[in-house]
Specification:
By secondary structure, the chain is mostly helical. The protein is built from 21 helices and no strands. α4 packs antiparallel against α7, α13 packs antiparallel against α14 and α13 packs parallel to α16.
Length: 444
């Protein structure tokens, strides 16, 4: 396609690439795929909101129903995943990273298929309504990558777009639409999913993000994910605190990521031997955590983070541990669900614990710095971490402090977690796609 266009005169090239029937079809297919990404991200947000209301209603009926749903929900999701939706395991971001590393063919078609797309949404919905500690950004990324990649069946896009651009654009749109953070969506696609800046794909990524965000804005309005903050750092001593918070909470985030990477493969081997027992064990652990924490571990953590950051709501001193442990169990199990919301909520709870020791600082500033530091330590995507929090809160006066804390948290995290979490999970996922090596010599 590209070589044929280059052979045409310049005017004909413009007509062919913009105004021909083929071009109109490509543009229409692309817009539909980008719009579908935004619509699915909006659906996942509705599911998250409805699951919170459902959880509150269950608490009025009986305190024991939700723990039972966690236990049986974990088993149900794992059984459905294994029997009908193989390939839906994980947050979705490692799967998008893996898809970029796989050449066009059956393996990539398996990772980015209609069956995976439908299964991801169904299993995420079950997990949310069961009360599991999962976010929705990972499935949004996977769904966006699926929509954009599958659109090539009708759009007949250029080869370089099919190989990387469409997947990157879908992943970026998934993040952007999930949180109404278009800049962070673009940055995350380049920083974490693609791990490189690709000029020829940048335009497609930005346009896809804009379309997906416009769809969500049509449903929710142009909103801030947490709300508007006016906090800032005015005194030199406050700036001296920033590196300390970045290093300390970046290390904590790195320890979370490393502990997950160290246990994922052993658990996977145990699960392959005894799948029902493994799923029941994690379901029981999550149910016990919910009982011990009096339900604090339920859900994505977004309501907790917003209440702490915007309203100063007091949470239990062990609240950060309940959210972090609940998300750790969910990620270890491999059920569909993300870690953005739980990680940010964990950081917010840690910030609330830290703020009383820094009475000379605005508590909201401390909480923001702890959120960005812990989150950056977990995902090791420092630019995304501070950009997404600025977009979520419009805290433009905190841009430089958040950037400094995020960068230092990233460096500290690498000391304890040399392999980035999503990269490690993507490698684990790819190892399951590869056929096992036959170590025995072939028969003669």
């Amino acid at each position: 396609m590209a070589s044929r266009l280059m052979e045409l005169p310049e005017k004909s090239r413009w007509r062919e690439s913009l105004f021909s029937w083929r071009a109109l079809r490509r543009h229409s297919v692309w817009i539909l795929a980008a719009s579908a990404t935004g619509a699915v991200a909006a659906l996942f947000r509705y599911l998250d909101d409805w699951s919170v209301q459902f959880s509150h209603w269950l608490a009025t009926v009986s305190p024991w129903i939700q723990p039972a749903m966690l236990f049986f929900g974990m088993i149900l999701i794992c059984q459905l995943r294994d029997r009908f939706f193989r390939g839906t395991d994980g947050t979705g971001i490692p799967q998008a990273i893996a898809a970029l590393k796989i050449e066009d063919g059956p393996a990539r078609d398996h990772v980015l298929s209609w069956r995976i797309l439908m299964g991801k949404g169904l299993l995420l919905a079950i997990g949310l309504f069961a009360g599991m500690t999962i976010g929705r950004e990972g499935p949004s990324v996977h769904a966006g990558a699926c929509f954009m990649y599958l659109s090539n069946r009708w759009g007949n896009f250029q080869g370089w777009l099919v190989q990387r651009g469409l997947i990157l654009a879908g992943g970026a749109a998934g993040i952007a639409a999930a949180f109404n953070t278009p800049i962070a969506g673009v940055v995350f696609a380049l920083e974490e999913i693609g791990r490189s800046f690709e000029k020829k794909n940048a335009g497609t990524i930005v346009r896809t993000v804009l379309v997906a965000c416009i769809v969500c804005m049509a449903l929710f309005g142009d909103y801030l994910f947490y709300g508007k903050l006016e906090t800032r750092l005015d005194q030199p001593i406050e700036w001296l605190v920033v590196p300390v918070l970045g290093v300390v909470f970046g290390l904590l985030g790195g320890l979370f990521a490393q502990s997950l990477l160290l246990t994922t493969r052993p658990y996977g081997r145990f699960y392959r031997r005894r799948p029902l027992l493994a799923a029941a064990s994690l379901g029981a652990a999550m149910a016990l955590l919910a009982i011990v924490s009096d339900g604090f571990s339920y859900g994505s953590g977004y309501p907790h983070a917003q209440a702490i950051l915007m309203e100063g709501t007091e949470v239990p001193t062990w609240g950060f541990g309940a959210i972090a442990l609940g998300n750790w169990i969910a990620l270890l199990s491999g059920i569909p669900g993300g870690l953005f919301d739980p990680s940010l909520a964990t950081g917010a709870a840690l910030g609330q614990l830290t703020a009383p020791f820094l009475e000379f600082m605005d508590p909201q500033a401390v909480i923001l710095l702890c959120m960005v530091s812990y989150f950056s330590g977990v995902v090791q995507s420092p630019i995304t971490a501070f950009v997404i929090l600025v977009e979520m809160t419009d805290a433009r006066f905190m841009t430089l402090p958040l950037a400094l804390a995020s960068m230092l948290a990233f460096e500290a995290s690498r000391l304890v977690c040399p392999t980035a979490l999503y990269e490690g999970l993507a490698e684990n996922f790819m190892s399951r796609l590869r056929p096992p090596e036959n170590k025995d010599p072939p028969p003669t």
